[in-house]
Amino acid sequence: RGTAWLGLAPPISIAVLMLVLGIIALIVRRIVAPPFFPSSPPQVANVLDSPFMLDAEKDVPEGGIVLDCNDPLDRAMRAIDTYAADDVDRKTPIYLAFGIKPPEVQGEEFEVVTTALAQLGDQTFTAVIKRLKAMGFTSIYRFYVDADAEESVAQVAERLNASAIWSAERVDG
What we know:
Layout: H1 3-6, H2 9-32, H3 43-48, E1 65-68, H4 73-83, E2 94-99, H5 108-134, E3 140-145, H6 149-159, E4 164-166, H7 168-172
Parallel strand pairs: 1-2, 1-4, 2-3
Helix pairs in contact: 4-5
């Protein structure tokens, strides 16, 4: 009686031991590096499938310049060329703002459009960052905002007390 179960005792005890050790390791890791365990990760991070903290979750210096990246890439580049004169300090923080909230879309379409917007934002940010780094700017931060295009720029500017907003709308008139 019970001899069939005796053979399972060592593997089960090893599994329980590994589970306990894993939980202890997670607790220690959470104490040592709490930023990797945000209490409420934003929806944007889930859209981007990013395991890392976004710039919106980090401490970012205030008083920089917001660059509107909601326009097509060529218009964003034109805004950079227009505003990034030689007298602009290259150590000034540049905040790239991109809104990922699609207008008037619901349900399954909402997720598809939001994911597409996030990917478009990532492509735009990559190209814009290359241009800004080539011009000598060193502090560049990406902000995916859960708002429409216009509101995303306003939210980033308000949150970080921006000194200026660079936008293609203002260039093109």
